[in-house]
Amino acid sequence: MTRVLLESSTFLKALQRILKREPQLADRLRIILQLLAEDAFQPQLKTHKLKGKLAGTWACSVGHDLRIIFELVEFKGNPAILLLTIGTHDEVY
């Protein structure tokens, strides 16, 4: 079941910052976002539920120290993923 990806303004700003710093990540991010849309729980994404102040959200791994924080939502009656932010482990947690 493919989900629609919805990008928050915070996610877009963080993504621009990361791609400016590391433009070589563009292809990897494109692949990860496609995998996320197809199945957010594919093993290579290492998706996990968050606790504490981020309770109700999920995180997946883009690489060694890069994470995407997201929520599972509905958009126009269909399953969707709201991309909240992206950054290093320390930036997003």
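[next item in queue]
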Amino acid sequence: MVDVGAKAATARVAVAEAVVRFPKAVADALREGGMRSKKGPVIDTAIVAGSMAAKRTHELIPFCHPLAIERCRIEADFITDTSLAIRCEVAITHKTGVEMEALTGASVAALTVYDMCKALSHEIQIGPVRLLEKSGGKREVKSGKVVPR
């Protein structure tokens, strides 16, 4: 684990995105059914799962610090007829960043969507999963690109 003892606590925010791509018939069926599958409300369940995962990232990824997350917001919107973008924003005031928590939250939310919908098709695809934004540490990321501070 990296020693963060000498670092200053600063406000840190990270936003990650995972894209779930559905066959057209599945996307149409989900929309027509109010984003519900036989298992229940797809997006609501994904939001709960992603939030839980973000808070437990340190249990899943070796060497991640356990963090008391101050904000975790997950949103899901169709960006094309068949692609659902899931964004996870995590914020904290701490000595270490929260990009792993945001990536984990977005990933697990996407996996939950797959699980909720796999009875409709096993042709659902997840990806890419990427960091969109990061602020508050040595480096900043905007629109998926590192920018100088």
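[queue empty]
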